[in-house]
Design a protein that fits this description.
Number of strands: 15
Radius of gyration: 24 Å
Number of helices: 9
Helix content: 25-40%
Bound molecules: nickel (II) ion
CATH architecture of the largest domain: 3-Layer(aba) Sandwich
Shape: elongated
Largest sheet: 7 strands, mixed
Order of helices and strands: HHEEEHEHEEEEEHEEEHEEHHEH
Strand content: 25-35%
């Protein structure tokens, strides 16, 4: 084996870095909300065409599927980025801050896109070294359930793909670092609405009505016991109602209440049990009060479980690029990420890319109006993604 197999690749990443930064700044200035990423989609398509990538058909309003064909035939590896932003008014004061008022790349998806486009440029330059294809998945709607991953998959995004990699920036991890975790890293997500159908009436004549608000109060209260009494306490889970709506006036008994909730878990068993237990509890209470229940499931993502051998490939490549550095383990959280939908079907992993740098105030949490990512992470991300793709082909051919 050569001493530093990626010298040429690193040089290319450095050479293109200025361009990667300007791509990132452009995207940062024009953020768009989930499933409304029209300008972003047009921009990505244009960038992909410039690189000579093949645009694959996609029956969706936003998002891009592109492919790089190597010099020789072989397997396909996919690289995924999300492309949407959040309804947040940016307060960073950066010279390239959002020009779409009320919308901000506060989760770093602009960084993800720049990394993937940067890697695509490097890889198209190194096409001769590729025996197979690289599929680039620019996925809309990560922030907004039911998410863009499933429709992308339905459009063939991971057809014939043998491995997928993805990334997420991490403002709690120092720039220059990455983190990895084998197995379950993020939670399953079940977003749901409970609609309690009572019967309206006069506030002074409750016995002639079915009070949907009083019933809803009991439902919320009882569901608090689902996690504490019916889920194995060894495995984390959470149920939260973030919104409640119902009623029209002080002296009118409400006929309907809608409870908007989300249920999270880190184990497959709890993931299976939560919807059943929520429905059983809510329906039982509604029945006891003479009300009726409808449960709508808005989104279902599985737990995000990274494939260990893909992590090993990432770690090996990272070490070959930057020397032996400590690679911390990504912390488990009950947050969700629809990258899990790809991993449900094919092996793969999502790595965390450190973007923290206290000197430039790049240490605010995701989704903060003050969220800043250190752009020095772009070089790390681009070279890791590009080199991992090259290494994937090398290992799959030997
Ligand atoms: Ni995100």
């Amino acid at each position: 084996m050569q001493k530093s197999p990626h010298t040429q690749l690193l040089k290319l990443c450095q050479k293109y870095n200025k361009q990667t930064v300007s791509i990132r700044r452009h995207l940062h200035q024009y953020p768009e909300l989930s499933f409304q990423e029209y300008q972003t989609t047009a921009y990505i398509r244009q960038q992909c065409k410039k690189l000579g990538l093949h645009l694959l058909p996609l029956n969706m309003e936003t998002g891009v599927l592109a492919e790089l064909h190597g010099a020789k035939p072989g397997p396909t590896i996919a690289v995924r980025t999300d492309i949407d932003a959040l309804p947040i008014i940016e307060q960073t004061g950066l010279p390239f801050k959002s020009r779409n008022h009320g919308c901000m790349h506060a989760c770093g998806h602009d960084m993800h896109m720049a990394v993937v486009l940067g890697a695509a440029k490097v890889l198209s330059t190194l096409r001769e070294q590729i025996s197979g294809s690289v599929r680039f998945i620019f996925q809309p709607g990560e922030e907004s359930p039911p998410g863009g991953a499933r429709p992308m998959i339905a459009n063939g995004a991971i057809e014939n793909v043998s491995m997928i990699i993805g990334l997420h920036v991490d403002p709690h991890l120092a720039v220059g670092k990455i983190s990895l975790r084998d197995g379950v890293t993020m939670a399953s997500v079940m977003d749901f609405d409970l609609i309690i159908h009572g019967q309206g009436g006069h506030a002074a004549r409750p016995h002639t009505a079915v009070d949907a608000i009083a019933t809803a109060a009991e439902v919320i209260d009882s569901i608090q016991k689902v996690v504490s009494r019916e889920i194995d306490p060894i495995t984390p889970a959470a149920i939260t109602f973030g919104k409640i709506a119902g009623g029209v006036a002080r002296n009118v008994i409400a006929d309907n209440v809608i409870l908007t909730g989300t249920a999270r878990a880190l184990s497959k068993q709890a993931t299976r049990k939560l919807p059943v237990l929520i429905k059983r509890t809510a329906a039982g209470i509604c029945k006891a009060r003479g009300a009726r229940l409808t449960m709508n499931r808005i989104a279902d993502y599985p737990v995000l479980s990274n494939t260990p051998r893909v992590n090993r490939l990432l770690a090996r490549t990272f070490t070959s690029l930057f020397g032996k550095r400590n690679i911390p383990q990504t912390e488990q959280v009950l947050g969700g990420e629809d990258f899990s939908c790809y991993l449900e079907n094919i092996p793969g992993a999502m790595f965390r890319l450190g973007v923290m740098n206290k000197k430039i105030k790049a240490d605010k949490p995701w989704h903060s109006p003050y969220f800043i990512a250190d752009e020095k992470a772009l070089l790390v991300g681009v070279s890791l993604v590009a080199a991992t793709v090259i290494d994937f082909f090398e290992f799959s051919s030997t």
